[in-house]
Amino acid sequence: MEEIKPDKTINIKGLVCPYTFVKSKLAIEDMEVGEVLEIILDYPEASRSIPKSMEDHGHKVLKVEKINDTDWIIVIRKERE
Fold first, then answer.
1. Positions in the chain whose pLDDT score sits under 70
2. Which residues participate in catalysis according to the annotation?
């Protein structure tokens, strides 16, 4: 499987909802269509809510991966303005 290279990475560890989504949404709004955003987080609820919200906004979730006991990586491709 080809490694996905993010165009931008944000680390939102330590934040809780709704701030996790707000930071993620602001980051992707600042990107071009087709670019990839990598989100690093440690809030369990956000590991489910961010992918759902991004899909609801028309973006493509490429990966949701728990990388250790406390952290996740979510990778999103911006699909629309």
1. 1-2
2. 17
